[in-house]
Amino acid sequence: MNIKPLMEKIKTHTGRITILTGAGVSTPSGIPDFRSPSGIYSRYDPEELFGLDNFLSNPSYFYKFAVENIFTMKDAKPNIVHYMIAKLESIKLVNGVITQNIDMLHKKAGSLNVAEVHGSIEKGHCIKCSRAYSLDEMYNRSLESPDKVARCDCGGLIKPDIIFFGELLPESEVEKAYKMIDDSTLMIAMGTSLAVYPAASFPQIILKKGGELVIVNRGSTPLDRWASLVLNEDLEKVSSEIFSLL
After folding, report:
1. Is 13 a catalytic residue?
2. Which of 22, 25, 53, 242 is the most buried (most CB within 10 A)?
3. Is the model's pTM score more than 0.90?
């Protein structure tokens, strides 16, 4: 594997780089992905699982899944990819990371400027009274409930702060993402299929303003032909190589 072209891109655009991450960044930490042939959507209907109307009418379906597949993210540890990205930020080579992941691992690894555009499992809120709940509180309340649904003391349904189908992306996180893009001339997309919108539009913004796109992903993406560099390599190996050179 030749990491030199990627390092040259990082050197050329130092301080003007935004990293975009998807599920492939977190799978080495044991976080299941959604869209691969063996991913979650191969076993669950995505609309039934994450459709907002379905959640409101039948929350037990989501919560049964969450106890087994989402709330367990609280015990996940960052991997070399997360630590490499945090290191790039700490030495001011990149200005931040935009992530489609809800697992909190970038922040656990030490990244400070993180735009979680699909929300985060870190907290949830009662849809009736807006009271905030931590991940542990949601998890414990769902385990203790007869129907395994986390409910507020007021009786309202607790919804994790992740984006369901039918919801707008969190405005503050999207604004943070656009600010990073405005300050960047290069985007490095890692572990993402670049097939989910509107997050997949972020690289296109960079390209339209004359910037560059680098893609590091095991599989092909719809934007490969527009990228100035594509590495279809293992993310952990690429990250280890970069880390060793920092």
Report:
1. no
2. 25
3. yes
